[in-house]
Structures are given as structure tokens and as C-alpha cells.
């Protein structure tokens, strides 16, 4: 199974298996955060989860789990496939520990970090169905909690941009590029257009916002769907659609031919659902053509 490791942002101390680690703020795709901790050979069997967490955060420097092993992890940009599972396998090799099921390992980490309102959440990239995994802040007001490397005015802009995407006509979940640029003028105080473009570029680099395939609009990035799903559901209720198959938020995919039917399905979920099965709506049984799509993020 391929797993993407999504960029993480938070600032907390996490204690796992008797060790305390500090997760510093991420600064975009260059992953400025670093972890520091000291481990000793007799305790190797106890710090496997922590080593995994450290490896996910440390991009630019050598990763030294203990005195007898040195690993170097090159890039840790969140788009890279299979990264989290690959890291886990290498941690087990370094610590000479038996590799357990990856799902069980993630569950072990979640048991420890839930008490600090964090969770490793797994989902799929809506554009291509590739699995992703991210460390998510589960506190209320998730935009403010997650986007800690943005100024208050930038967070206000981001909130309004996301709201415009959610409220867009015909479930496009998109905002035209020029509309997004002009939105800065409505802020108090106004944000100059050149600064708005710079902010959007940062939001894209950090995975919060993406460009539609034709470049005409901005859409929610994979990270926004992962980290802000609870916030968006609380804020916008029925405006947020849930995939009938996986029950995750869906902003692009296929919908029932009957206008009044609420069924929406990710394209990758539809691929699995209709593979060799009757092509009909799972709720109202209307014939499903796979041509009635929504969301501007779908590949052309």
C-alpha cells in the first residue's frame, strides 16, 4: 500500500513510551522543524514510535536514532509516495525491532497523541485516489490551530477563501484566480494584490490550496481536506458533501443524475464501486452514467 506523508504543523510536546519529543512549527515544504532527543542503546525497544515521529519531521539534518546507527532522509515533501511506510520499515531495521502491521503502529501512536488533541489521519488524494496520512489537530477552530505560521490577517483571508470555495455555485468548490486576488482588497486592512499572490503561493506550497487543472481557479488542497474536515462540517453543515462510499468529505467526483438525490462519490471510490457491478445510484437506484461530475479539481 502506498502512503503519502503529509506536511505537519503544530507546536507541542508529545511523550511516547517514556520519551518526550517536541514538534516544532513547519515552515512550508522546506520543513524547517527539527526534533531533538537523546536515546541510549538499552532503551531501544521503547522508542520506536518516537523515532518514527522524529523521522517524519527532520528533513535537513542527519537522523541519529542511537549511537550505532545513522540514517539520512533526503526530501520529506508531503507529495512523495510510500514515505511514511518506508520510514517505519527503516526505523524497525535500525532499532532491530520486529516490524508489526503498519495500521497497528499508527494506532499505537494515536493512542499516545490523542491526549494532546492530535491524531494521525488517513485519507486519499481526491484528484488521484492515492492514500495520504497526516498529523491533524483535533481542537476547535482548526484553521487557527493548524495555520500557525500565518499572521492573523492571513488566516482571516484563508478563512474567507475557503468559505468562497464551499459556497461556490454548482458544487465547483473553486474560486477564480482573479476573484481570489481581489479578495485581499476586502480585508481590513486591505492586503495589496502582490502580497495576496505571495500568500496564495505559500498556501499552495503548504498544501492548503491547489490550482485547478486548467489553471483558472483555486481549489482546496489535500491538506485542507484532511486537517479541516471537522471544522468545515461544523461551520457549513449541508454545504459539505460526504462520499457515499468512504464517508469522507468530497469536493470533486461524481454525482447522481437525479438532481434531488444527495449522493456524491469520489472518482476513485466510484472506480471501485462500479467495477463489475451494476451502474446505479447506491441510494435511489437511478442509472449511473459516470458523466455527471462536480468540482473543478478533477483531472481534465
Automatic annotation (TrEMBL):
All residue ranges annotated as the Non-structural maintenance of chromosomes element 1 RING C4HC3-type domain in the record: 243-284
Region forming the signal peptide: 1-18
One GO molecular-function entry: ubiquitin protein ligase activity
GO terms under biological process: double-strand break repair via homologous recombination
Localization (cell): Nucleus
The EC number(s) this enzyme carries: 2.3.2.27
Key words of the record: DNA damage, DNA recombination, DNA repair, Metal-binding, Nucleus, Signal, Transferase, Ubl conjugation pathway, Zinc, Zinc-finger
Primary enzyme class: transferase
Highest taxon in the source lineage: Eukaryota
Catalytic activity: S-ubiquitinyl-[E2 ubiquitin-conjugating enzyme]-L-cysteine + [acceptor protein]-L-lysine = [E2 ubiquitin-conjugating enzyme]-L-cysteine + N(6)-ubiquitinyl-[acceptor protein]-L-lysine
Pfam families: SMC_Nse1, zf-RING-like
Principal place of residence: nucleus
GO cellular component, one term: Smc5-Smc6 complex
Primary role: Acts in a DNA repair pathway for removal of UV-induced DNA damage that is distinct from classical nucleotide excision repair and in repair of ionizing radiation damage. Functions in homologous recombination repair of DNA double strand breaks and in recovery of stalled replication forks.
Subunit structure comment from the entry: Component of the Smc5-Smc6 complex.
Similarity-based family: Belongs to the NSE1 family.
PANTHER family membership: NON-SMC ELEMENT 1-RELATED, NON-STRUCTURAL MAINTENANCE OF CHROMOSOMES ELEMENT 1 HOMOLOG
Protein name: Non-structural maintenance of chromosomes element 1 homolog
Organism whose genome encodes this protein: Lichtheimia corymbifera JMRC:FSU:9682
Amino acid at each position: 500500500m502506498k502512503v503519502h506523508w503529509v506536511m505537519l504543523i503544530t507546536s507541542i510536546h508529545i511523550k511516547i513510551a517514556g520519551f518526550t519529543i517536541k514538534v516544532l512549527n513547519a515552515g512550508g515544504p522546506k520543513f524547517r522543524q527539527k526534533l531533538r532527543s537523546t536515546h541510549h542503546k538499552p532503551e531501544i525497544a521503547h522508542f520506536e514510535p518516537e523515532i518514527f515521529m522524529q523521522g517524519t519531521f527532520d528533513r535537513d539534518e542527519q537522523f541519529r536514532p542511537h549511537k550505532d546507527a545513522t540514517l539520512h532522509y533526503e526530501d520529506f515533501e508531503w507529495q512523495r509516495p510510500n514515505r511514511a511506510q518506508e520510514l517505519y520499515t527503516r526505523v524497525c531495521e535500525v532499532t532491530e525491532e520486529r516490524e508489526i502491521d503498519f495500521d497497528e503502529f499508527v494506532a499505537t501512536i494515536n493512542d499516545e497523541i490523542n491526549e494532546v488533541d492530535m491524531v494521525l489521519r488517513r485519507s486519499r488524494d481526491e484528484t488521484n485516489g492515492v492514500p495520504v496520512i497526516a498529523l491533524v489537530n483535533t481542537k476547535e477552530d482548526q484553521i487557527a490551530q493548524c495555520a500557525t505560521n500565518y499572521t492573523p490577517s492571513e488566516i482571516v483571508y484563508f478563512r474567507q477563501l475557503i468559505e468562497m470555495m464551499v459556497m461556490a455555485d454548482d458544487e465547483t468548490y473553486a474560486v477564480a484566480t482573479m476573484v481570489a486576488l481581489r479578495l485581499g482588497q476586502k480585508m481590513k486592512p486591505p492586503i495589496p494584490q502582490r502580497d495576496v499572490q505571495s500568500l496564495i503561493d505559500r498556501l499552495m506550497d503548504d498544501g492548503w490550496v491547489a490550482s485547478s487543472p486548467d489553471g483558472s481557479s483555486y481549489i482546496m488542497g489535500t491538506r485542507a481536506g484532511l486537517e479541516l474536515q471537522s471544522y468545515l462540517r461544523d461551520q457549513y453543515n449541508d454545504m459539505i458533501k460526504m462520499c457515499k462510499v468512504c464517508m469522507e468529505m468530497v469536493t470533486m467526483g461524481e454525482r447522481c443524475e437525479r438532481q434531488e438525490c444527495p449522493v456524491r462519490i469520489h472518482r476513485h471510490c466510484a472506480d471501485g464501486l462500479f467495477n463489475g457491478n451494476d451502474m446505479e445510484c447506491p441510494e435511489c437506484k437511478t442509472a449511473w452514467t459516470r458523466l455527471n461530475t462536480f468540482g473543478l479539481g478533477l483531472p481534465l
